[in-house]
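Researcher: Quick sanity check before group meeting.
Model: Go ahead. Protein one:
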Amino acid sequence: MINIMLVDDYPMALEGMKEILKEAPNFKVIGEAMSGNEAVEKLDVLMPDVILMDINLPDMNGMEATRRIKNKYPHIKIIMVTVSDNIVDLFAAIKNGAQGYLLKNMEHDSWIPYIQSIINDEAQIDDLFATKMLKEFSSHQSVDNHKRSDLTCREQEILLWVAKGLTNKEISLRLEISEYTVKNHLKSIFQKLHLNNRVQLVHYAYEHGYLNSPSYLT
């Protein structure tokens, strides 16, 4: 069972998300909040696995709430929920530790598979979003200058395939190893490089020469 917390200042939005999540038998909404402060305050009691977080909230916006939550509970996965694909807002959310984003006008059938992919650390990167994100990253100092030698040869190999958009399953088939092994390598990569998600990993790969001519920028 995956415990989920919803954060949105509109009651109808909260009800709408609950209706969507009912379609997944392994998802359980264990709590909700209508502001950033309320979300932060409730965490010690609720301890969800996943938070669906609106970006625009009263008293503390979703980006700041995400930063505070990830600093204290880095294992909690946070997905931003927004009506806009404004790259500046999404960049701030990703930089503060969010694992992904959902647009409120997306087809509702795609919500559950996407949330499940975030839980499994398998979310693929949308090409258009990655293009915008990499360009935005290029004007910010958002990733520490780590050396390639920090990673093993296998980890560097997996980093490259993730950066090229392959899922964990596709990587496991290509390298003839189990998905479980891929996930363990990814966990080690994220820890060594102090990264939180696949988008940041793509930027790291681009910045450190793993992608000499990344398709995201063409």
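Researcher: Fine. The other one?
Model: Protein two, sequence then structure:
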Amino acid sequence: MCCLPACLPPPGTPSPLHTDVTGDWSGTFESSWGTFPVKFTLSTPAGTTGISGSFAIDRERATGTVGGVIETREKDNPGMFYGSLTISYLTQANEQCRSTSGVAVGSAFSSSVSFVTDGFPSGNCPDPPSSIRIALHR
């Protein structure tokens, strides 16, 4: 456990810039499955670099979550996203599966967000999508 002074950045260290992407987004989910419409709800609490949210692909074909950080180094430049995604869908056996991506990266502006990842190697989903590219707009 740390005391408050030890947890604070050194004096003169600039506060991290905040790219606010909180809200509802729509766009495309492009992968080995094809290209489908996707809707995201994202949250980036003020004063943090964290991002979290949920998504639905093509009217609930699959759902998932996103979590990570948006690192914004300069004003008016995109924030860089680093994190992971999960995906969940019904299998042909009518069972719900869930898998997690490897590292996902992307960029974030106040009017557009994008994520890319190789796929969802961890979990129990059969034939999860690979080569994922997500492009979102407000």
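Researcher: One line on it for the slide.
Model: The chain has one domain: 15-137.
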